[in-house]
Amino acid sequence: MPDNDHYVIIGNGPAGNHAAIALRKKDKQARITIISDECIPFYYKPRLTDFIADKTTETNLMVTPLESYKKQDIRIRLGQKVARIHPDSKSIFLQHMEKIKYTKLIIASGSRARLLPSMSSFADHLNFITSYTDVMEYKKQIAEANKFFIFGGDLVGFKFLNMLANMGKTITFMIDPNSLWPFHLTDDMLDKILTNLSKLNVSIIIDDDITNIEDQESAFMVTTRKGLKKTIDMVFSFNGLIPNIEFAKGTGIDIDHGILVNEYLKTNTKDIYACGSCAQIYNPGIKRYTTSIGWPNAVAQGEIAALNLLGDHRIIKSADKKYFDLEGVKIKTTWWEDIDDE
Q: Is the pTM above the cut of 0.85?
C-alpha cells in the first residue's frame, strides 16, 4: 500500500478503537487518525454508573490510555467534533472548519440520547447519562440530591435506577415500553420488569405522560397527564439512543435511522464504511437493514470494517452475546439473524 494512505475513524468507542487496532496490525505504514468529540481516550461506558456511585475510579474507566495510542502510532484527536464530510474531495471538516483529508474512512460515531419531541420544550431541565462528560457534569449533584424522577427505561436507565436505589435515593419511575427504541417491550416483558422492580423502593408510574416540568428555585415540579405532581431534585431521561450521524446528512451517503451499509459494512459511497450503533446493516437472509447494540457487536464490526477497508471480503455476523438481561427480560442485542427460538 502507498505510504501516504490516511485512514480516518470518526468515533472513539469499541468499534472505532478496534478498527484502528486492526488497521495498524495489517498496515504498519499508513497514517491512522481517530477523531472523537469526547475529551478522554477510549473508556468503559458500562462502568459510568459505578463511577457515579464511587464504586470505581476514573483510572479504572479507561480502556486505552494516551500512551497506548502513541505506542501504536495512532493519532487521536480528542474534543474535536466533525461538522460534515465531503466524499468527493475525501475530506472531513471539523466544527472549527479545519479540513482533514482521508484515503479511506470508517464512521463509528456511536449514538446519543434520544430526546422525545414531546419533551423538547423541557430539554433544559433534563439530564442524560450517555457519556463521561454527562457524568462529570452531574456526579456531585447526584450525590447531593435526594429525590429523582426518571422517565423512559432503556438499558442504561434501568442500571441507573438500581444504582440510585442502592444509594438510598427517593425515586419516581415513569416507564415507557417504547423507550428501548428501536426495540420495543411487549406487555409480557413489561409485566416481568414491573414484578422485579417491585423489590425496590421505587414509585412506579405506567400509562401516563409528563405534561410540564417547572423550575422551582432549587427543585422542579413535574406534572403528568393524569394530574400527578411531584417535587423533585433532578429529572433524568432514558428513552433509547439515536445514531450520532448529523455530519453525514446531505453528503450522498445513504441514511435511514442510521448509516446504511451492506453485509460488508460498506456504504454506498466509495471508500467509506460504517460500524457500531450508528450503522444499519443489510441482512441478506431477511432482506432488510438491522441495528445492533452492545460492546461485543461493536468490537466485531469495527474489526470487520477495518479488514474489508483493506481489501478483505468478510460478511459481518452477530457476536456471541445475543441478549441483554433487563430485569429478568431478554433483550436482543442484534436482529442479524432469527434467534427467537434460542
A: yes
